Amino acid sequence: MSLGQRLVILLSLILLLAAGFVHAEKISDVRGTKHNLSAATTYMRNGVSQTVPARSVQATSETEICIFCHTPHGAQSNTTPPLWNRALSNATYSASNTYTSSSIDADAAELAAGPGGSSKLCLSCHDGTMAIDKVSVNIDVTNGNSSNNTTIKMNVASEVKMPIGSGADTGFTRNLGTNLSNDHPISFTYSSTMVDNDGELNAAAADNTTGGIVMNRGPGKARPVLPLEAGKVQCTTCHDPHLRDTADLNAKFLRQNRYQTAKPGTTGFQKDVDIICLACHNKGNASWSFSAHAHDEVATPTYQTTPAAALRGFAGKKVWEVSCLNCHDTHTVQGARRLLREGTTPLVVNGIQTGVTGGSTLSNDFSKSAIENTCYQCHDGSAAIINASGNGSGVPNIQAEFNLSYRMPISLAGEDALHDITSKLTGTVFFPETVDCTTNKKCGADFMESRANLATRHAECTDCHNPHRVIKGQKGLPGQLTAANTKEKAGTHKHENAAGYIHSNEISGVLRGSWGVEPDYQSDPSFHTMPTKYDVKRGDPGSNTSTAASAAYVTREYQICLKCHSNYGYEDDNLYPSGNTRPSLTGTGKTGSNANGHLNFTRYTNQAKEFQAPAGHAKSAGSVSLGHEGGAGAAVTNTATNSNNHRSWHPVMAPTGRLGRAGAFLAPWNNSGTGGQAGRLGVQTMLCSDCHGSATGTATVMPSGNTDTDENGSPWGPHGSGYPFLLKGTWSTTSGEGDANTLCFKCHSQSSYAGSSGGTGFRDAGDTNRGDLHAYHANKIDTAMKCNFCHVAVPHGWKNRGLLVNLRDVGPEAGLARGTDVGNGPYTNGPYYRRAYLRISSFPSGTSWTESNCGGKNNMLSQCENAT
After folding, report:
1. Residue 435: pLDDT band by 50, 70, 90 thresholds?
2. Looking only at Cα atoms, what is the longest distance across the chain?
3. Buried residues in 456-481 as b, exposed as e (16+ CB within 10 A)
4. Cα 287–293–294 angle (5° rounding)?
5. What confidence tens digit (pLDDT) does each residue in 312-329 have?
6. Cα separation of 660 and 677, whole Å?
7. Is the bond leading into 668 cis (omega within 30 degrees of zero)?
8. Helix or strand run (H / E) with residue 18
9. What is the pTM of this model?
């Protein structure tokens, strides 16, 4: 035999052995599993002595293994095969005690009917109502005698029932009980209708398809990877009670991998490497594969070697390997929604995360869902569970944000289950639904919620983030997802001081695939008019590159915010100063009524109404004359204020069109332009989270620890703050000159607007010796000048140019008729006026003002010299 032939044979043997090793990881060997309840401690397999795993319950002398489930004679007649040797449980699994969800697309009647088929066999032990040591027939193999309804002597006193582990209500027990609402649904038809409606499920293979993944099992037919039973999912679809995993003793009899062993595929289920969940739940394939929770170069933190992690078998594994099990448990804690791991409240008891060590009724309220507690398993900053957790690690400490004085109302978790994802939107008279969730509409996958229920002022992490779709990319819409464009320095938006960089309101990776709304104003530019309808934006953007606000999917952060902070999410009577229907400013962790020096400010304002950015008003200041109240019509003939006036807004929805004055702004708003452009002001847009979020240092909106090159410091986003309205700085009657932490001075230069450097564009048309009029007023007013003397107190957007108040022209925004002159200040009323003084007689063209525009020098002196 030649050397070459020998090498070929040797290589073939190596490949054969390697292939054999892969397939030998899961073998049919019930003797080597915990289902071996016999007295045996060892056994022989292929001539090699094997050890039976330690069991807390086992027989004292019975050596038969199969007897605990099967008998060749006298089997139960009320079961399907295989020759069942146990009585079935008589327990009633009521509809309220079977798994259901407002977002599930399986047949509701089948779910409510409870378990059936072969699942009843499993439950004859695992529901905890039947004794494990009781069998129907016991045949003595030495003499052939048999006895019926026999008790087998065990190492614990009879009746022996399934042990409860860490607690019957926890995720650390296999005594499932008769309340299966926290367990993966079973005994439902895996139909094509369900697959189509869900949108993130793999279709079942046709019967007898070679290599079929999810498929019916039948005699003489091709063997499925995950077998259905007469078209239905049963316990045995995922579990084989005889199966032993030679590589993972904690594999739970699973037919496929308990963990992800290589990076997830982008086009379909990979039998050899993918976690078993992906065989049915593809979660958008590439969208999941490149998500921040599955990307094998992003989700790299490792589970600590704690007893809790060891209990689950997670110790030493990376987040991407643990995959779906990071957040879900198919037999989870009682009270959690959607099989979320430890998704109940509270989580921390005496500094210990009870969800990890195994909670009890003394530490967990198992009646209340708390989705955030699932997220806090990693996003708590403690590094107690994974080794990289906390600001600076790439896994931000979100829990700390929700512990601040003011926060999104996330802690109200289970108090009202109406606030929930649904695949069946119905609508009401006040809140008609515009989304069709019937055939093949994927509402559950898109985390849609009923419009009528958004008025329940409660937040969940999944309101803003879809964990199956988020990516670590500063651009949330990079087109075709790749390993490179989903592992950038951060998943939050770019906010850099760099020439040519234009700040944008487009979504970043952490908002990808969420849902929101785009307001439609029907061409009415009035500040007093609410949007007449909203276009819902939802879905997985896939490889789409369009970033237009008109796209079918979410492209802007404000679209996500406005589904709650507008009349899309609540009834709005549009009455001010407070009205009767908008949500109240009350509640734990929320801003209270009349905060920050307001009066008659007891309810939220409508941000969709305020942020409207009419294209016809996006011009240089004073260059267009759009009439009384900046375009609200001229029903009141207050002609002195009609000329050179227009609406103004912060550019959250669209640019302002007001160019120049870069020197009065801070980075990145003052970035220099390229290609001969003077700058980016008037062109750029901003995010709600530029102003709302945890406190920052002076002169920046970037959270602590974030820089141009490293954005893994404190998290962006309106999770919580030390200031009312979740603001990043102070915004009260003291904000302005003398307060470096004023919110405005995070973007607007304090030295320009409240100091002497000038450059704000507020000029005197006749007396150039006065210089910049912001600096001039700061010098002339005896007390420190405050922003709210002249500017609206809720500066999202306004009826007048420059966000300027005008006490000669107060109207419906304060509950008054248009054009009402309220006299000299200070004037405080409702959300928009807070110790306001400014009285404008007329607006100038451009930005050069005269004394006459404000009623003359004497009027200004009497009004403002001693302003407080």
Report:
1. confident
2. 120
3. bbbbbbbbbbbbbbbbbbbbbbbeeb
4. 65
5. 889 999 999 999 999 999
6. 10
7. yes
8. helix 3-24
9. 0.91
